[in-house]
Amino acid sequence: MERPTHPTHPTHLLIFDLDGTVLDGHGAGHQAMERAFRAVMGQPGGFDHLDFAGRTDPAMLHLAAARLGLTITEEQWPRLLDAYVSALRETAPATRALPGVPALLRRLARNPQVGLAVGTGNVEAGAAIKLRAAGLADVFPVGGYGSDGESREAMLAVAVARARRFYGAEGAPLVTVGDTPRDVAAAHALGFRCIAVATGRYVQPDLEAAGADAALASLEDAAAFYRAVSWLSGRELSD
């Protein structure tokens, strides 16, 4: 893929969530967390019964521990994250890009109007593993991760700041793209517009009820996505 190493002053910044929006991990994260939790905490974490949608990796690990009445110590925490990333290397190969996503992202990545960034609850190393497995390792040059903040709002704030610095686009309108009500809430908490796609566990009416500024069935219809970005940003996005 041909793209400037440091695109300058795009007119649109787009920050994409990963799981459920760009990727289908086929349970890779659940499985890896369970393996890591057993190895470090000495018991199952029950991750198959927890709600991952829109949560960061650190939040999920702490949620599992709290439900079991456990506290993850300062000594255990880095070991738990390392064990998770190690396990994810084994579980992530089944990860696939969702329909229409590779074509859309590569189209956007070639567009000088667009600055792309990732804003995901995955820790940075985990995001890299999943994107590589899905064949999208070269799409997002910058982003924010669960390793940058346990809350979705904290992670997204880091993603936005990094994207604006990287692209030199302090004044460019910014739109986030996610698949859960938590994605919508985090964007709105920071004053940004959010396109929600019904490719995760939530259908369009759920996402509209959560306050999504635009709700799409999927990212397969590139023209619909471009129209939504143009409307929400107040600037036309074209190829």
Structure description:
- The chain is α/β, with parallel strands linked by helices and 239 residues long.
- The chain has two domains: 12-25 and 95-233, HAD superfamily/HAD-like (Rossmann fold, 3-Layer(aba) Sandwich), CATH 3.40.50; 28-93.
- The chain has helices at 28-41, 57-67, 76-91, 101-109, 124-133, 152-167, 181-189, 204-209, 222-233; strands at 12-16, 23-24, 96-97, 114-119, 143-144, 174-178, 193-197, 214-216.
- The relative contact order is 0.18.
Strand order of the largest sheet: 5-4-1-6-7-8
Task: Assign the CATH class of the largest domain.
Answer: Alpha Beta
**First and last CA, distance:** 16 Å
Helix content: 40-55%
Instruction: Sketch the topology as an H/E string, one letter per element.
Output: EEHHHEHEHEHEHEHEH
Give me the CATH fold name of the largest domain.
Rossmann fold
Q: Any guess at the CATH architecture of the largest domain?
A: 3-Layer(aba) Sandwich
How many structural domains does the protein architecture include? 2
Considering the protein shown, what is the CATH homologous superfamily of the largest domain?
HAD superfamily/HAD-like
Per DSSP E runs of 2 or more residues, the count of β-strands stands at: 8
What's the gist of this structure?
The protein is of the alpha/beta class and 239 residues long. The chain contains nine helices and eight strands. The strands form two sheets. The protein has a six-stranded parallel sheet with strand order 5-4-1-6-7-8, sandwiched between helices. A two-stranded antiparallel ribbon has the order 2-3.
